[in-house]
Amino acid sequence: MGKWSYAVILDAGSSGTRAHVYRWPDPVVTRPSAKFRNVEKLPEISTNNEWTKKITPGVSSYAQKPDRLGPDHLKPLLDHVLNVIPPEAIRETPIYVLATAGMRLLSPQDQRHILTSACSYIRENTNLSLPDCSVHVKVIDGKTEGLYGWIATNYLLGGFDEPEKHNHGKDHHTYGFLDMGGASAQLAFAPNATEARKHANDLILLRLRSTSGRPQEYKVFVTSWLGFGVREARNRYVKALLRETASSGTQKRPDPCLPQKLSATIEGTILPANAPISTKNPYFVGTGKFDECLRRTMPLLAKDVPCEDDPCLLNGVHVPAIDFDVNHFVGISEYWHTTHEIFEMSHKDKAYDFNTYQNRVKEFCGMNWDEIRKGISGKKWGKKVNEEKAYEVCFKAAWIINILHDGIGIPRVGLENTQSSATNGTKEVLKHGKEKGYLDPFQAIHKIDSTEVSWALGKAVLYASSKMPPAEDTLPVGFGSNVPGIPNDFQYPASPHVPVLLPQPPQGSYTNKTGDHWHDSLFDGDSPRRIPGILLFVLIIFIALFFLCGRERRSRLYRKIGFSKSRGSPHKRRGLLAKLPFLRRAVSPTYERVLEEGARHFELGGVDSDDSDHSPTTALHPSKSAPGWGNPHHHHHHPTLKYALDNSSTHSIGSALEMETIKNHVDRTGLVIRTESRDRLSPLTLGPTLNGRKSRTSSPVRHKTPFSNM
Question: What string of DSSP letters covers 116-174?
Fold first, then answer.
């Protein structure tokens, strides 16, 4: 799969589906060098804007036509991610289709039809890894969505990897997380030590794993409010407003959460200013009274619902007490878009404070709709602001303010901590933010270090963490009830039947997998391949040097280590070197070098006695122990012909050859001719004065032997 691992997360939200591609270094690459850097850090996950694609509407809109979900909705998303992931990595890349609040509003039967259609289409049209539909394609609950967002936020801010740089006091170094979409809102945070002990049963045990294989555990409180997203909250507001104004005797209903003189249907369609309006159906006309908008949206928090487990925040939902001295919250999605996007171009200050933000909203919503339209045409509020966003911003702003300050209880920074309405609390927040980081009670963000904060990233962090090879006796990565060990409701980030093994590359593909890191795997003390790798490396070097040293040096090496023994010797070769075929001396050209190098001593084996088997072949091997030129040895008693080339007469050699002629019917013409040539050398030429040096003075005269005519 190369040096990168990939994961695809499809965030199937209520308004659309967004495909994310994430990657991180493969454990085969990172584990050998982990002892040098990033030992206790989580995997380094990366992505970019070009790897993300969003289409609308959401998957929940296919409830009545699930068969069209694949070709109409999933296909462009899958085509996009397959162009991002290298072809060789596709089969190992998991894909997750995780639906949120929009799907939660559907019936279980409609959910099942949509999820089945999605899983079947992906399996039939891609090679992405999807081993278990129930794990990879599903509707996640609000708590899981909130937990993923909490993971992503702390991962990007550094709360996990660098706790010493994010010390909030009381041994606390993580950030709270707030998310709001169209249908639901989530809250996640790690309570202080006192609240964690009091509400231990309400917490989720989260277990991650660093690149070193050691676990990181956190105890987090997570809750979700379905129906508290901006779209669903607006629907509840419209219904309440229609009930309260039903006795007005007219279809024209005043709406304080719309800019002045803006007319719109109850479904949210903006009506032309001069066009006739039907009196059959009620419609809204904006008054631009933001203070009244705040008052009318307050009941939507449902704070009057009985609290069965004190303390509670919204809709009677229990939440441990929040210690804002150590719990600093980061808000994404609508928290960011509503507090920043509408004022992005007209105001340079980016940080949120209640006083500054509320004054800006009042100014905007009190404007006449015609004036706002002119500002939109002139890009006064940036390219992203259109009439639809301008229509929604007043209600969204009122809802966000109520949720944050009257619902969750976040201090009104700028109102409670500044002197007057003329004070720019945003500049104060920015000033302190540069010194302290995200240490204010609330801060809305969109990106951290160019990476968008989304719960999908949290899912990717959890999955990548689970793929880090574990240390000994390490519990699995995942989350569940806050009990020791592995709770019954423990959720694994991947299919639980797929084990996490130590990173071993497939046979034959080690080079491709490790790339430039082969030296780390070979010489790193933590690598299980260290010793075998070194031995293999030394053996390869030895063999290469052996063959590069030349034939002469190898010959001398044979003699020094006593490698060979005469074929005619009664003793057989012993030892390991004799059994290695690539260390044996080549025998076929030996007899051709006799004339050229003046062969010192050799023995002729394979000429058997009457009692021996008749072998069809004969091999020549150097003698294990050969006497010098001045020490000839004649073994007339031995049944095999043995002789030494020296200054002796040729008569005895000829007699011996004649004696063996009848017993051997093998063509030895070449052998005898060459042997005879040596025996015909003049004694004076090969005299002792030459001390055994080679003789090349003249060519010997060839005599006929009994073999010559064979």
Answer: HHHHHHHHHH---B-S-HHHHEEEPPHHHHHHHHHHHHHHHHTTTT-GGGG--STT---
